[in-house]
Design a protein that fits this description.
The chain is 70% helix and 0% strand. It has 12 helices and no strands.
Amino acid sequence: MRRALELNPNYAWGHAFLSEWLLMMGRHEEAITEAQRGIELDPLSATLVFKLGQEFCYRRDYDRAMEQLQKALELEPNFVWAHVYLARVYASKGRYEESLAACEKAASLFGGNPQSRGLRGLILAMAGRRDEAKTILNDLKKQPKVDSMSLAETYSVLGEKDEAFEFLEVAYQERVSLMIFLGVYPTFDNIRSDPRFADLMHRMGLAH
């Protein structure tokens, strides 16, 4: 990626992809610098603006994350992933009704797939509505294709560590793409100190 940017320093997506790699490795300041450079080069790209919002979210800088995600939605109102991360940010700030509203918007754009259902379960868990969250978890586990990351996140937030690691292992074996951000997901803070988490990070080559 650095070689690509040597060849073309003004390649906006080159900066964005490098930013993602830096984020995966927990190098937040460098990641944000690269993401901001990508936006400078292509300020009308909703995806690039979203990626910066995503990185602020993983850094737990929720106010700046919200600002970027809202900018992305100004550029592209039906950008589903911006609604997904806005729901996460609102929940992280304790604004659960707004979070659920953003979740509903994402669900309508997703067409009601299990992923949006998993997001709702996560938000309910973050809001302390355990019984409702567990109902969704039980429904999701009956699906033909299990959304293992959503299940792992929600169990982590609920403090049910064994179940969280059970589904993280499934996600690892299935090579779920979002696992690359395992080290920076705020929803795994409850289990981050568990030796099983360090082992999984090591197996993925993400130890930092």
